[in-house]
Amino acid sequence: MRKLLIISIWLISANCFAQDLKYARKTLNTLTSKELWGRGYTKNGMAKAANFIESEFKSFGLQPMDGKDFKQPFMFSVNTFPDKMKLIIDGKKLIPGNDFIVHQASVGLKAKTDLEQKDSVNFLAASSRILVTLEDKLTWSVSQKVEDYTQILIKKSALSSIPKNIVIDIENQFIPDFSAANIAGFIKGTAKPDSTIVITAHYDHLGGMGSETFFPGANDNGSGVSFLLSLAKHYAKNPPKYSIAFICFAAEEAGILGSKYFTENPLIPLDKIKFLINVDMVGTGETGATVVNATQYPKEFKLLNKVNEEGQFLVKINPRGKAANSDHYFFTEKGVPAFFMYTQGGISAYHDVFDKPQTLPFTVYENLFKLFVGFNQSLMN
Fold first, then answer.
1. pLDDT score of 18 more than 70
2. What are the Peptidase M28 domain coordinates in residue numbering (predicted)?
């Protein structure tokens, strides 16, 4: 029986993989495009990404999870940087994203002043409430609040000497009621429609920093959304025994807010979820993958490893314990059995402007696809 399962997985994958990889690449290019502007908080980026995902769900023939609408709207606060992003240090104009970033909780400011060195990496203009910090690597994020000072993080390699003078013109806009939406659809099961397997991924990223710089977010998490959509497309053509649902969450980068909202306002009874698998950053895989919650659900992790070993899909699947580091977390807290999987190896770009689609190898995409199909089939059996 097990051999027949593996053979059927291989046949399914062989017939559809080439087309699915082509679709995933095309989808990734769309999600990381300038038009979607980092799937964030300026230039309507997140809303455009939501509309794209909704249109894909509709084209596959998925049904809205609540029977009415694919979108589950909610609101939260966020600090944004929609326009001016100018920085000159000692007469040298620095490039946003490449040479410097503004701390995500900073207030906007226009000033010209001298800097006082406080230690080896921190420089202060106290009267203007400016803090300059030198970093080896620039990593951006999202803030739900605004501080009363402006912090600039500069890449050490962008400067030839310690900074002494700063010219700054940066605009921020705090939005207390930013509108976003989770996108949820499902395929009705052929034998046990009341039992549901859920695949999730967050579609938001960091958006833009100023009017000319955006963060593409290819691996984080264009890769996960592309993978999820490929699975949705596959299962729409091959309905499984259980119902299978697909949820793309907003506001993961702001504090896993979309999944928190969903678990507090579920569109399906949470006790109907047989298992949930969250994917984030699955565009690599040379050295294998890691599963968060593996120690929480040893039976399912053993099953996942068995499917992997028999199919020789991934080099290694590393177990990890409970962690509040992605959208699986609040489901686990509500008693829903869930894994969070991410791949490892390959590119090191993360929360920076270099996380681009052309650098993403999709190393184990085919085998990851086979692993998911096999694991889901095993759960249903």
1. no
2. 182-370
Based on the domain organization, do 75 and 191 belong to the same domain?
Answer: yes
The pair of three-digit structure tokens given for residue 93, joined into one six-digit string: 């104009």
Cα separation, 187 vs 354, whole angstroms: 36
**Residue 346 CA, distance from chain mean position:** 17
As for how many domains the chain has, the answer is 2
Backbone phi, then psi, for 83, in 5-degree steps?
Answer: -135, -100
Tell me if 79 sits within 8 A of 146, measured CB to CB: yes
Q: Could you give the CA distance from residue 34 to residue 359 in angstroms, rounded to a whole number? A: 16
pLDDT tens, position by position, 352-369: 999 999 999 898 999 999
CB 329 within 8 A of CB 259: yes
Same domain, 293 and 163: no
Task: Please check whether residues 332 and 319 belong to one and the same domain.
Answer: yes
Q: What is the pTM of this model?
A: 0.95
Structure tokens at 257: 């807010």
Helix, strand, or coil here: 226? helix
Considering the domain architecture, whether residues 284 and 303 belong to the same structural domain is answered as yes
Question: What tokens were used for 177?
Answer: 């009621």
